[in-house]
């Protein structure tokens, strides 16, 4: 039986951030007005993403507080609007960093909703077309548009599924788009939340060689278990030099100021591709144009992924067994989890559990 509007909740309990540097506090906040395309979810799990912390800290400009972050949200569907056909009450579902788009522009209509020409609607710190605020998954409930809600494959648990919706997608989509495949030789810069997925994707997509680039030796064993064939400590110039001209792709998940462009670009073979995931606050600096030219290197960015890529990724992961390494925290220990995240403790993703 479809739920009637009268029986639907109007509010939810979220762990809200009231301002930069403040602890999260459980707060009652309004859900958006239920629409015909909306899906309600009882949240079971939500992953913790670097973007969450960045937004709590107003790192990308002023945040609209109070803000409930979290955009790796998984749970059970509790109600659907009358236009919703593919999702039913009781289904296990998830949503990622995007919750809306105009759905009418050229990009939305051609399956690139993440590139909506009117701007994508972020799952938190955004506004629905009605002007109501969007709220993320550090919460008991979530409500949003069916286009950005996905069913979880049967052989994937909710706690594992959560982290696919941002960390995994952010690396999967550009690696597919730039054709990582059998025979590829892929370097992954940074073995963290994104990087530990990127290594597994490269292997699952058939790459011959997967090389971890890390600033210390600490993650060598983990990288091997994840599927790396080689591990390079980036301060070791001789090790770096061994890969000169060898790689077909680099996936950079750990860009920092004073990034050593010449050292990394040198590891690419001709017509190689450098994929930058993540969103540095400052313009890129120090890129050696000569090296780009003489090796015909493609340098590209990427932003999450479109709904069709989410669907494809979930199926691919279910088939190949790509799986996050997670540690769980009870939702009410969210402040401890955030502190541990800030201290660099995830190996390799934290997931909050209701
Ligand atoms: Zn994220
Ligand atoms: Zn659009």
Automatic annotation (TrEMBL):
Keyword Zinc in annotation: yes
Pfam families in the cross-refs: ADH_N (PF08240), ADH_zinc_N (PF00107)
A GO molecular-function annotation: oxidoreductase activity, acting on the CH-OH group of donors, NAD or NADP as acceptor
Keyword annotations: Metal-binding, Oxidoreductase, Zinc
Lineage: superkingdom: Eukaryota
Cofactors (names): Zn(2+)
SUPFAM superfamilies: GroES-like (SSF50129), NAD(P)-binding Rossmann-fold domains (SSF51735)
Domain Enoyl reductase (ER): 22-352
InterPro entries hit by this protein: ADH-like_C, ADH-like_N, ADH_Zn_CS, CAD-like, D-isomer_DH_CS1, ER, GroES-like_sf, NAD(P)-bd_dom_sf
Gene3D superfamilies hit by this protein: Medium-chain alcohol dehydrogenases, catalytic domain, NAD(P)-binding Rossmann-like Domain
Coiled coil: none
Family per record: Belongs to the zinc-containing alcohol dehydrogenase family.
Name of the protein in question: Enoyl reductase (ER) domain-containing protein
Organism: Mortierella isabellina (Filamentous fungus)
């Amino acid at each position: 039986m479809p739920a009637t509007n009268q029986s639907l909740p109007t509010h939810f309990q979220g762990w809200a951030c009231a301002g930069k540097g403040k602890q999260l506090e459980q707060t009652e906040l309004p859900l958006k007005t239920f629409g015909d395309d909306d899906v309600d979810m009882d949240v079971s799990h939500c992953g913790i993403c670097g973007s969450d912390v960045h937004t709590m800290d107003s790192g990308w400009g002023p945040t609209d507080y109070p803000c409930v972050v979290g955009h790796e949200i998984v749970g059970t569907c509790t109600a659907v609007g009358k236009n919703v056909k593919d999702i039913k009450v009781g289904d296990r579902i998830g949503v990622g960093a995007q919750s809306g788009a105009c759905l009418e522009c050229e990009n939305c209509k051609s399956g690139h909703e993440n590139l909506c020409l009117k701007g994508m609607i972020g799952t938190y710190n955004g506004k629905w077309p009605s002007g109501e605020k969007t709220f993320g998954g550090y919460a008991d409930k979530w409500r949003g548009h069916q286009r950005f809600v996905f069913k979880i494959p049967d052989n994937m648990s909710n706690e594992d599924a959560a982290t696919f919706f941002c960390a995994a997608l952010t690396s999967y989509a550009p690696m597919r788009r730039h054709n990582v495949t059998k025979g590829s030789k892929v370097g992954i810069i940074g073995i963290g939340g994104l990087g530990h997925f990127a290594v597994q994707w490269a292997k699952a997509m058939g790459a011959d060689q997967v090389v971890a680039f890390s600033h210390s030796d600490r993650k060598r064993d983990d990288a091997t278990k994840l599927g790396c064939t080689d591990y390079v400590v980036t301060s070791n110039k001789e090790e770096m030099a061994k890969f000169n001209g060898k790689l077909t792709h680099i996936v950079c998940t750990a860009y920092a100021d004073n990034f050593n462009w010449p050292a990394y670009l040198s590891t690419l073979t001709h017509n190689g591709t450098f994929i930058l995931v993540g969103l540095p606050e400052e313009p890129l600096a120090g890129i050696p144009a000569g090296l780009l030219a003489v090796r015909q290197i493609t340098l590209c960015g990427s932003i999450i992924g479109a709904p069709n890529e989410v669907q494809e990724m979930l199926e691919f992961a279910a088939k190949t067994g790509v799986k996050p390494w997670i540690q769980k925290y009870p939702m009410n220990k969210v402040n401890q989890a955030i502190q541990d995240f800030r201290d660099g403790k995830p190996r390799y993703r934290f997931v909050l559990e209701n």
